[in-house]
């Protein structure tokens, strides 16, 4: 059914709280990784990707905070997210946005695989014609 205005507000506040909490946890983990890097240890590929994602999220947080802090500017947030979809830190993304992004990546990979398959088939035809 439809949610009341109060329930929508509570849901949004929970979403922001969870997003900031996850960002705080990621920042603490990233700080430990930087500490390990500074002391000569090597990061795994997964740790390096997490560190880069967390740093990018921290840089994205600055323009996002403007929308949260300035009164009534949060009403413009959907417009800016439509214009700049990567502006939101990854910890604030909803499940539907994550699924949509995964679908786009999968479609791009499928198109690339189709292109490569057609290219290989074309090269095989040319080689068969050259040798025949």
UniProtKB/TrEMBL annotation:
Organism from which the protein derives: Indicator maculatus
Gene this protein is translated from: Letm1_0
GO-annotated biological processes: intracellular monoatomic cation homeostasis
Major location category of this protein: mitochondrion
Keyword presence, Membrane: yes
Transmembrane segments: 58-81
Ranges where the Letm1 RBD domain occurs: 43-128
Keyword annotations from UniProtKB, A to Z: Membrane, Mitochondrion, Mitochondrion inner membrane, Transmembrane, Transmembrane helix
GO cellular component, one term: mitochondrial inner membrane
Mode of membrane association: Single-pass membrane protein
Subcellular location(s) of the protein: Mitochondrion inner membrane
Protein name as it appears in the record: LETM1 protein
Superkingdom of this protein's organism: Eukaryota
GO function term, MF aspect, one: ribosome binding
């Amino acid at each position: 059914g439809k949610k009341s205005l109060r329930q929508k507000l509570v849901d949004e506040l929970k979403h922001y709280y969870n997003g900031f909490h996850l960002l705080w946890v990621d920042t603490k983990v990233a700080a430990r990784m930087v500490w390990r890097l500074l002391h000569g240890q090597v990061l795994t590929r997964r740790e390096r990707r997490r560190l880069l994602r967390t740093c990018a999220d921290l840089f994205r947080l600055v323009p996002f905070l403007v929308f949260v802090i300035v009164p009534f500017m949060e009403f413009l947030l959907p417009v800016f997210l439509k214009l700049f979809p990567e502006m939101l830190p990854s910890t604030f993304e909803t499940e539907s946005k994550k699924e949509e992004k995964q679908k786009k990546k999968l479609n791009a990979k499928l198109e690339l695989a189709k292109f490569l398959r057609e290219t290989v088939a074309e090269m095989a035809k040319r080689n068969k014609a050259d040798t025949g």
